[in-house]
Amino acid sequence: MKKFRFSRKQLVIPYAIFLILFVLLPLLLIVYYAFTNSEGHLSFVNFINFFKDSTKLNTLAISIVIGALNTILCLLIGYPIAYLLANKKYNSNKVIVMLFVMPMWINFVLRTAATRDLLSAIGIKGGTMPYVAVMIGMVYNYLPFVILPLYTTMLKMDKSVIEAASDLGAKPYQVFIKAIIPMSMPGVISAATMVFMPTMSSFVISDILGERKIQLLGNLIDLNFNHSLWNNGSTIALIMLVIIGISMLLTKNVKKEPASRGGGVW
Amino acid sequence: MVKKILAKIYIGLVLLIMYAPILLLVVYSFNNAQYINLNQPFGRLSGSLYVDLFRNEEIMTALLNTVLIAISSAVVSTILGTLGAIGIFYSKKKMKKTISALNQIPVLNAEIVTALSLTILFVSLKGIGVQFSFFTLLIGHVVLTVPFVVLSVIPKLQQMDVNIYEAALDLGATPSKALKSVILPEILPGIFSGFMLSITLSLDDYIITAFTKSDSFTTLSTYVYGVTAKGPLPAELRALTTIIFVGILIGLLVYNFIMAKRAKKNERRFKRI
């Protein structure tokens, strides 16, 4: 037998085993449960049930609409903020930038409950207007995730292109459309991917702020989890994985900011 | 000038709206009314909620558990992820690609899918005695955080001078000694930011915690989630939110102050050169 010799490559082994056991294997189990019935036989019955059930299809549609609406709202509010923060003319204070991402460090459930307390104090109650309350809660929660990648992209924007555009006679709105928007596109894309899927799959915000009146895909998985319905739960999880895969393929060609989930903060 | 004022107003307004829920809790943390009611006069200032908070055993246990799982998962993730990152960095191309792709899965996946997949794994392993416990919760949190440790360490390895490790070996260091005293100090900032990121992700987590914990274990997230089903936030949590908010704010200002000082120092050094 060859004598064991240490090399740096071998350090990957524990991590590889961990990933296989706790990342890859669980996902394979999801696929297995999605394509079997409760007796463990191969079957498409879960998918047939999902796409035949109008309430479940409704949930899928509502999730997509709320996800898209939240992405648009966050971008509309966050884009100007990021632009102003990244522009030396309007802001040179780093603390202000950090104030925008600071809410991420306050416990998420606590923050959401605080939002509900505020909304019900000013008369927007989840019981009577669940959609309004949930949308406000979604924007509250995801705004920092939009501002951060947009801000980092805009810091790196080539300012001379903007100056050149206006020197060459472009009006301010033309500069914005033809120079600033295209240059900030990578930030927009990564912001959108950080908002859209998490919104669809969240269930805490819709539960707390919508007084359990609104069901998103995340709520559906949570419901199946609570009743130990692994086949149904896995089916929805697999549908979600497919949607994630599609959205990744769509955005593959655009270079993304690596600042996901607050990764850029540290 | 007008533009500048408008910009300031917009930034201020969004910040005010963003912090409104927290500020409301901060203000009402000094009032011992059971629930917040803006139509009633504010009443007397009182610090009694802060006393109640520390007397509430349920909240204190939840807090302790939250910190316990955050620290233990961050330590495990940091060790596993740092070794993993070094291993990935020095692996052959094929291995490198495979592991990096696997590493991206929990980052890109919806958290609830990760949570459900782990639950199904643990349920499937019931036959060999696996039960939902602190250990399953720990695995859940490590899955959540370890990819971010790897992602913060790898850039530091890329920035490192490739020759210094070889030099250490040539000068007679054993590979493990060279790893410890040459590579490790170079990538320390990456390890530190990975550790901090792990802590923050773990402290904030609800979904994976709820899916992988044992029934009797509560963290701050699961405790708050449980009480919100019954009604508005219990009054003591207003005091807790205030403490967390002020703590983070102070941390932020101190961090900023240190960074500004360091930047100034560097500037001076540049000038001398």
Estimate the strand proportion of chain A. Answer: under 5%
Structural class of chain A: mainly alpha
Counting DSSP H or I runs of 4 or more residues, the number of helices of chain B is 11
* Share of β-strand residues of chain B: under 5%
How would you portray this structure in words?
Chain A is an all-alpha fold and 266 residues long. Helices cover 71% and strands 0% of the residues of chain A. In chain A, helix 1 (12-34) packs across helix 11 and helix 3 (54-86) packs across helix 6. Chain B has 273 residues and is mainly alpha-helical. Chain B has helices at residues 2-28, 48-55, 57-90, 93-108, 111-124, 134-159, 163-170, 175-204, 207-212, 220-228, 235-272. In chain B, helix 4 (93-108) crosses helix 6. The interface between A and B is large, with 88 and 93 residues.
Keywords:
heterodimer, A: mainly alpha, MetI-like fold, 11 helices, globular, disordered C terminus, B: about 270 residues, mainly alpha
Write the topology of this structure.
The complex is a heterodimer of chains A (266) and B (273).
Chain A: H1 12-34, H2 45-52, H3 54-86, H4 94-101, H5 108-121, H6 130-156, H7 159-167, H8 172-201, H9 204-209, H10 217-226, H11 230-250
Helix pairs in contact in A: 1-11, 3-6, 3-8, 5-6, 6-8, 7-8, 10-11
Chain B: H1 2-28, H2 48-55, H3 57-90, H4 93-108, H5 111-124, H6 134-159, H7 163-170, H8 175-204, H9 207-212, H10 220-228, H11 235-272
Helix pairs in contact in B: 1-11, 2-11, 3-6, 3-8, 3-10, 4-6, 6-8, 7-8
Question: What's a quick, concise take on this entry?
Answer:
Chain A is mainly α and 266 residues long. Helix content of chain A is 71%, strand content 0%.
